[in-house]
Predict the 3D structure of the following.
Amino acid sequence: MVDQTVSYQNASPDSASLNQTSQKNYKFPATSGAVSEMKFEPSDQMLFLSGLKNIVSSSTRRVKNVFIATLNVLPLPVANSISGLIYCLLPHRLNILPSIARAWLQYKFSPTIAPMPKLTGTPIGFCGIVGNPDTDQLLRGYQEGFYPFSHLGPVKWFASDERMVMFFDEAHAEKHTRRFLRNDRFRVTMDTAFETVMMECAAPRPDKAPLTWITSQTRKLFMQLFEAGHAHSVEVWDKEDNLVGGLFGVASGRVFFTESQFHLASGASKVAFAVLNRHLGHWGYAMNDGKDWTPYLKAHGFRLVNHDKFQDILRQHAKQPMRVGKWQLDDDLQWQNWQGEMECQYSGTLLAPFRPGP
């Protein structure tokens, strides 16, 4: 039998090695009596690898879409548990699983664990199990820089090395948001539909996996704070009195901790955010904490501060006596005509805008 030799240039897809090709010869039984030679140029291999990548990417998207569609027909608690389990097993979260397991075992034997005194040093900032705290314990957690968070299992305390925060002299509203404030497209209220706002924030988004950290356990904690006058919501209604946007969060001293927002109509959540920040600045609050960096928060004037600065602000302001109880819109504030400037007012005295140290 005649041996047929096929030779080609093997090139790495890496651009740095495209000019460093190596000649390789492979022999295999020929199907004809002639000897032929095939040569593949680097550009041919790049086209082949690009096509293969597109095929894999397309297949991955199809599998993902089928998986999401399957989850969305399941009961929401079941779907959220499955999504939460997958989320916990992602590579960047595996390193905190041992810490969570140890804290969970402690919680089983002592189910009223107070917040941990410091960060554990993990990148994600897991700090302990929330347990069954009373209102004062929950507020102490916020005052020490922790926040409740959990996709699966008991609610946990987390903290971050950096926090995305707003100082109210830096607050601004986009042009179209100010237009929404001036016209009568939306009606805004405070603390009139807190639980409904939470449920809307927890609802699955279209074409997204049904994964939320606002579980039934978490909602009970926030309802506890709301009933005690420490958690608040802003609601945005359309002309037919449908709830089309809003947000909720926790207030401790002169610091507000925004938890989540939603919108069912374009611009509704931005209107809620603008109205909230306008009132917080006028009422004398020092800071609005948004936790992690997002483009949405950056567009509203939030910026990152490190852990030490964040703790300094909390020590100065998070335990000061402020507004406790249900909030209402301040009709004297004329927030509908806000042009973006922000004054800070506390106890009737105009204050210089609060800024952290260097």
Remarks:
- The longest helix spans residues 42-72.
- Residues 3-60 form one domain.
